[in-house]
């Protein structure tokens, strides 16, 4: 008999009722909802009272829900699945669920809530070690960072994070949450790293990154990794500050 094993992250989701025993989350989806002005609170209510529970019912793992600090009328959330086929099956069942259809009709009685949905399919890197999901009394600011590399340099970036950056982040008080690469070429499968870290607040975030960039160990790692040329394209870093919603598993 094959020995039973389950990752720390899958176990944490099991304890939250979001994933079945033995399942590993290998396929993720970062979804961004843009709402009509004034409709974000109604969208939050629908997720809080209905959507999150129905996601769990149909085999989707609620990983995190956030609102961007500087982008009003926006909800960003992360779902996990065992694989791409499981994602398709779950969404079909969700959309056909009478409870979802009733919740949708009730929430849109005065007009639709959402103007646009963006979806980014992701796979975790081999060094992504997502923590047990729990409400945090310390980290209340999350940061979504996307790095774009020069052609052929993504593996070098992964090596730098795997061998140096993640450990140095933790050393300086930057909490690693999750690291991904897009699954589709059009989204940058060969050139992008998408990751989430968390901080106590914006002030501590600034202090932590300042200490990180001045750390001799970081300067050495960066220099050694770029002997053959820069890894990132010019202006190849984007950053979005995220505030967890009250119904987010990580809050």
Characterization of this structure:
This protein has 251 residues and is α+β, with helices and mostly antiparallel strands. The protein folds into two domains: 24-124, Alpha-Beta Plaits, CATH 3.30.70.100; 141-244, Alpha-Beta Plaits (2-Layer Sandwich), CATH 3.30.70.100. The protein contains seven helices and eight strands; from the N terminus they run H-E-H-E-E-H-H-E-E-H-E-E-H-H-E. It has helices spanning 8-15, 40-57, 84-96, 98-107, 154-171, 202-214, 216-225; strands at 27-35, 61-68, 74-81, 114-124, 141-149, 175-182, 192-199, 232-244. It has an eight-stranded antiparallel β-barrel with strand order 1-3-2-8-5-7-6-4, surrounded by four helices. A hairpin with a 5-residue loop joins strand 2 and strand 3. Helix 5 packs antiparallel against helix 7 (216-225). The longest helix has 18 residues, at 40-57. The N and C termini lie far apart (39 Å). The model is unreliable at 1-22 (pLDDT under 50).
Notable traits:
251 residues; alpha+beta; Alpha-Beta Plaits; eight-stranded antiparallel barrel; 8 strands; 36% helix; globular; disordered N terminus
The main β sheet shows up as: 8 strands, antiparallel, barrel
User: Looking at CATH, which topology of the largest domain would you report?
Assistant: Alpha-Beta Plaits
Spatial separation of the terminal alpha carbons: 39 Å
Strand content: 25-35%
Radius of gyration: 19 Å
Weakly predicted, low-confidence segments: 1-22
In sequence order, what are the helices and strands, one letter per element?
HEHEEHHEEHEEHHE
Assembly state here? single chain
**Structural shape:** globular
Structural class: alpha+beta
> Overall mean pLDDT score?
90
Total number of helical segments?
7
Look at the structure and give the CATH class of the largest domain. Alpha Beta
* Count of extended strands: 8
Strand arrangement across the biggest beta sheet: 1-3-2-8-5-7-6-4
**Count of domain modules:** 2
CATH architecture of the largest domain: 2-Layer Sandwich
- What level of helicity do the residues show? 25-40%
């Amino acid at each position: 008999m094959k020995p039973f094993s389950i990752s720390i992250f899958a176990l944490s989701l099991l304890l939250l009722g979001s994933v079945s025993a033995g399942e590993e989350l290998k396929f993720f989806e970062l979804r961004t909802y843009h709402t009509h002005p004034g409709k974000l609170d109604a969208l939050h209510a629908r997720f809080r009272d209905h959507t999150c529970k129905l996601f769990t019912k149909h085999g989707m793992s609620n990983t995190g829900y956030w609102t961007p600090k500087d982008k009003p009328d926006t909800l960003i959330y992360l779902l996990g699945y065992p694989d791409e086929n499981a994602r398709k099956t779950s969404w079909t069942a969700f959309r056909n669920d009478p409870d979802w259809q009733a919740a949708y009709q009730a929430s849109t009685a005065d007009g639709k809530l959402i103007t646009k949905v963006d979806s980014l399919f992701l796979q975790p890197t081999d060094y992504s070690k997502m923590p047990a999901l729990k409400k945090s009394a310390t980290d209340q600011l999350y940061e979504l960072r996307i790095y774009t590399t020069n052609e052929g340099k993504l593996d070098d970036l992964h090596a730098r994070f795997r061998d140096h950056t993640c450990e140095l982040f933790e050393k300086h008080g930057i909490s690693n949450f999750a690291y991904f690469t897009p699954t589709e070429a059009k989204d940058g499968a060969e050139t992008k790293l998408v990751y989430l870290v968390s901080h106590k607040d914006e002030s501590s975030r600034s202090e932590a990154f300042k200490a990180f960039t001045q750390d001799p160990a970081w300067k050495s790692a960066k220099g050694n990794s770029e002997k053959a040329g820069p890894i990132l394209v010019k202006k190849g870093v984007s950053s979005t500050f995220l505030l967890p919603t009250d119904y987010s598993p990580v809050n």
